[in-house]
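Model it.
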Amino acid sequence: VGDPRHDEPLDQAEVLTTALWQLSADAPAVVADALRAHFLQLDTRVADALMESRAPRPLSLGEVCSLQLVTKLYPVTDFQHPVTTPAQLLLGELLTFAEVRSPRDAVSSLLTCALFYRFVAPTARYAPEPMRYLTS
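Modeled.
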């Protein structure tokens, strides 16, 4: 990442994605555990907001990117997968309870809808959460 040839954010993302791809092949359990821990942290944030009777804040761009990375590293076509299933459930929960309070929230939530589509499109599964969000 410190290489001047990789100063652009997309170049950095490509380098990191390549490194994570290789790491997931070399140490799949380590990468899966780290991603599940990340999802648990996000899910805890959502649950805490709901316990306080408030809407959870939408995902940050970095969080959207980390979840999109899952669609590159793991099969989204598996009926149950230890990494993709929790990610998809988290996205559904966010789209069900998120509220738009700013233009930034709207953009983040639309990116979340597009990301959710990446999880369900290859399997042609029905996903009501993005439709519920888009019609609300």
